[in-house]
Specification:
With about 70 residues, the protein is of the alpha+beta class. Helices cover about 30% and strands about 15% of the residues. The chain is elongated.
Length: about 70
């Protein structure tokens, strides 16, 4: 698969702005500032949605012909 890219990133939860900047500068890391309360479910959901590609990707020549292009030719 020529389009497959595997990225390993670490997500840190920062206590304050200074810690946020320090952690976010680490290679291969992302940091967010945690509030007093935080929903772990919402955090995981947001991270999963943000990790999805904007468009489906596949290898060159592997796109199935669904026939939908015929609609636009008429």
């Amino acid at each position: 698969m020529p389009y497959a890219v595997e990225l390993e990133r670490t997500l840190y939860l920062a206590r304050n702005e200074a810690e946020l900047e320090r952690l976010d500068a680490l290679p291969g890391s992302d940091a967010i500032q945690a509030g007093e309360t935080m929903s772990l479910v919402e955090l995981v959901e947001d991270e999963v949605l943000l990790s999805l590609p904007l468009a489906a990707m596949h290898a060159e020549g592997e796109c199935p012909d669904t026939g939908s292009h015929k609609i636009f030719k008429e």
